[in-house]
Amino acid sequence: MLGIADAIDQMNRTVACLIRWLALIMVLVQFCIVIGRYVFGFNSIAAQESVLYLHATLFMLGAGFTLLVDKHVRVDVFYAKVSDATRRRIDICGHLLLLIPSMTALVYWSWPSVRNSWKILEGPISVGGIEAVFLLKSLIPGFCILILLQSLSLLIRMLNTELKT
Length: 165
Fold this sequence. Notes:
With about 160 residues, this protein is mostly helical.
């Protein structure tokens, strides 16, 4: 089982290594937009939307890695003051009762919208924008799957540790 967890972790690390470059590209595109607008008087809705697409891709596909390295948002009301074993049990309950059900519900309820978007190859958000909203919507199930897999990996590791103690 730990081999499965290792493979999932490696997959999220690989995705993170690929998409981290989107942050630099996003900054460069935004810089070009600002220079184009204020220096040359040129404006492009497609270029502005590309920043939105880059940001969405970076956030949505990077979330699994964020969960892997434990840098996600956590409400530390009780968590900070308890033992490692209690933290592990809180995490197990959180994954099983909150994270996995919410990601499953999100992928279930968003799938019809994603499927329909692909069916019609849904066009731009704004007139003159990028004609690929179907790709943007595809990030939703991608996000859910990466989070679900990483949650499974973390659960495997936590349960393995729990069984050893």
